[in-house]
Specification:
about 220 residues, alpha+beta, Umud Fragment, subunit A, eight-stranded antiparallel sheet, four-stranded antiparallel sheet, about 25% helix, disordered N terminus
Length: about 220
């Protein structure tokens, strides 16, 4: 007699659905986060660049000014249409000096366009124009930069906080010989650099007057 042995039921074979682990979820979200952070970083860089540019613009415009020469009053040193950079900060640190080429607000509201002239007389000086030369405190100036000797005469005593200025084109310039002394507060800055047109690019020369230093 054979005893029938009943075996255990065979296990069911089913389909197992994989379960996403946290690591896998992070992997899928990573590209989206990277794009988000990348855009934020780019926007931050752009904003920082714009802010820096704005700050530089304000600083440069506070310390300097850009001006165009109008007319021939400073020939042959400067020419009509030439573009200059003028330093405003230099006269915060010191007073204008003889020989400086300056940008100024015309006295008596003669023009809305700034003038460009050369400082000749300082406070306390006596300036004379005679014998086709400019004299300061009794000494004739050597002026290699003028276009022609002055064809006019006159004398001026330069008072405190005033300056005597002339154009290098002496016979074709609206300057102190025509309208008098220039108040200090109407000086906008010292012309220091020419940047246009390209052939005039460079530092604007400053002339000194050793003949006056010898006398003093």
């Amino acid at each position: 007699m054979v005893e029938e042995h009943m075996g255990e039921d065979s296990p069911d074979v089913g389909v197992v659905t994989p379960v996403e682990t946290p690591a896998e979820e992070a992997t899928e979200e990573e590209p989206s986060l990277s794009r988000s952070f990348g855009i934020r970083s780019w926007l931050q860089d752009v904003l920082e660049t714009l802010l820096l540019a704005a700050i530089l613009f304000l600083v440069i415009n506070t310390l300097t000014g850009r001006y165009q020469v109008h007319g021939q009053s400073m020939e042959p040193s400067l020419h009509d249409g030439q573009y200059l950079i003028a330093s405003k900060v230099v006269y915060w640190l010191r007073s204008p000096e003889r020989g400086d080429v300056i940008v100024l607000d015309p006295p008596n509201e003669q023009s809305e366009i700034p003038y460009i002239k050369r400082v000749i007389g300082l406070p306390g000086d006596v300036v004379e124009v005679r014998e086709q030369r400019v004299w300061v405190n009794g000494v004739a100036l050597n002026e290699p930069y003028i276009s022609a000797p002055p064809g006019y005469t006159g004398n001026w005593i330069v008072t405190e906080e005033q300056y005597f200025v002339l154009g290098d084109n002496r016979n074709n310039s609206s300057d102190s010989h025509a309208w008098g002394l220039l108040p200090r507060e109407q000086i906008l800055g010292k012309a220091i650099f020419s940047y246009w047109p390209p052939e005039t690019w460079g530092v604007i020369p400053h002339y000194t007057f050793p003949e006056l230093q010898t006398v003093q």
